[in-house]
Amino acid sequence: MFEIASSPIDTADIVTRFTHDSAGALSSFEGRVRDHHKGRPVKKLEYHVYEVLAIKEGLLILAEARDKFPIVDIKAVHRVGSLEIGETAIWIGALSAHRNDAFLACRYVIDNIKHRLPIWKKEFYKDGTIDWVGCTHQSKPEIKEEEYYSKQLLMPGVQVDGQERLKNARVAVVGAGGLGCPVLTNLAGAGVGHITVFDFDKVETSNLHRQFLYTIDDVGLDKAEAAKKRLQLMNPLIKIEAITQRVSSSAIWENLESYDIVVDGSDNLETKYYLNQICHKAGIPLVIAGVFHWQAILHTFFVDQESGCFNCLSDDAASDDCVSGCTDAGIIGVVPNMVGTLQANEVIRFLLGEKSKSATHGILIDLKDLSQHKIRRKRRDGCSVCGDSARYKNQSVEKLSSMAHSHEIESEKITKNPQRFTIVDIRPESIRSRNDSILRDWPQVKATNFEQLKNLPQTKDYILVCDHGLASLVLTNRLRHFGLDNFYSLKGGINSLNAVNS
Amino acid sequence: MKNIKLLYFAKLQEEAGRNSEVVITEAHTAANLFDELSLKYSFSLDSGQTQVAINEEFATMNSEIKDGDEVVFVPPVAGG
Question: Which of these, A2, A80, A241, A350, could form a disulfide with A47 (CB 3.0-4.6 Å)?
Fold first, then answer.
């Protein structure tokens, strides 16, 4: 319930009527008119509103709070018109079973109302002046390229020409997490002219200890958007584009060829294989990194015939723990921040026209003793991406993307034909209990990696299921590459199945 | 040429000296339209400081505007 009130808010009356038998807590917040603003004595104020949109946005904020916190009910009233000192400007109340959720929900609503509702505050000061709060044009110092990049322009190998090359470059960064944050910060600071950030996740509290582009206020927001906002504050001279769709969606790669280089900052092998496929096909260099505990690995692929591609590194039949990313294994900030910074270094040196030593080697770094090993890569003849008989060789990126999706099955279809398919939950045991009760009604087999899946009886049709539908899709495509046409992937993962059944 | 209905609020209302108007414009995006109006009314805010709502939904300043749209430029808000 969200209201705009043009007469005084009777808070005592609202509190009396705002009750529920299951709610053990009512937390409320009341905002009042105070007699000073930034040191200036205030006489009174006026709130103006764009009512249609304010109500829509207010209801949306309350719905978000309900979604984020297990509360029983939530309500907000915002006053508009002319208000005297001490009058109530806003009242927010949340009912919940236990106090913490009500406190958090209340806080979430006021923080968002302040920044999102089309409501404006006009303050009348005691000295007779009047001002729209937040609208005073604070002339920010004009940022000049010569000054912003002045220290970098002194670097041998950069200077004016190099800076111009960075400015004209387009870089795609996939994932704005532990690796993506340092990649993005360093590329934006160096002045890469166009950066596209891909991430479909939201910022979570458990990201903040290592992903330093975000603050507690960003929790719950789209990562790509939050990253863009922060980076743009850091460097307003460049263009940042935020994409919140999944990278496996073919439409977003329509202009893949317009990028100079792609950086993988994803936390899963499947995205890395996918990027490797499309980048190799399009001839775009790709910088891949991965971390595990105190170790990190870095590869830069320049699409040459000698040193192969990411797919060459693993035998196609190698076992592949498809979803246990770093976040399940445990992770500390220094490791992804260091290797992400090295990824940015690879990109910058490439854009400056200096080919990296790592073009032919993978670099393995151990932060326990700061040791570094170079591992020579070689193209593998049997590689399904760049080998002699590469299946993908003659296919366009568009075709590859659409082919990648042709084996997806919508959750509605399987709920209609429960007996036709056997479910294979490919998530690791440790996270499986999270929401798997929904799978109980279907026939199931146990298999979590490529090897096990390959050996399942071929008389049945299998649907691979993971959390979001990406790991299962990549694995399905790999199985089909080996002629196993009885595998499908559940589109949207187990989350979509839960949505259909709820 | 397209007809665009504009509503003004808060500081922009005062600077435009009106609550609403219909303008005929060739502007392609909301940002183009804002710049056009800014020339006319000398707005003290620039397009980087305002948001836009098109047909009662928040949109981005580089959204395309179409004939018959209702456009509201939203100055920095201060609710609560």
Answer: A80
Kindly report the pTM of this predicted structure. Answer: 0.55
DSSP, collapsed to helix, strand or coil, labels residue B24 as: strand
Backbone angles phi, psi at A46, to 5 degrees: -125, 135
For residue range A408-431, what is the model confidence (pLDDT) as tens digits?
A: 888 877 777 767 788 888 877 666
Chain A nearest-CA distance from B72, in A, is 9
List b or e across A38-67, with b for residues whose CB sees 16 or more CB atoms inside 10 angstroms. Answer: eeeebebbbbbbbeebbbbbbeebbeebee
3-state secondary structure A89-100: EEEEEEEECCHH
Torsion of CA A417, A418, A420, A424, to 10 degrees: 130
Q: pLDDT tens across A137-177, in order? A: 555 567 899 999 999 999 998 999 999 999 999 999 999 99
Interface ipTM:
0.86
CB distance from A81 to chain B under 8 Å?
Answer: no
Count the helix, strand and coil residues of chain A and give each as a percent rounded to the nearest 5.
40, 25, 40
Q: Pick A120's closest partner by Cβ from B9, B44, B58.
A: B9
Give the single-character DSSP code of A413: H
* Angstroms from B24 CA to nearest CA on chain A: 23
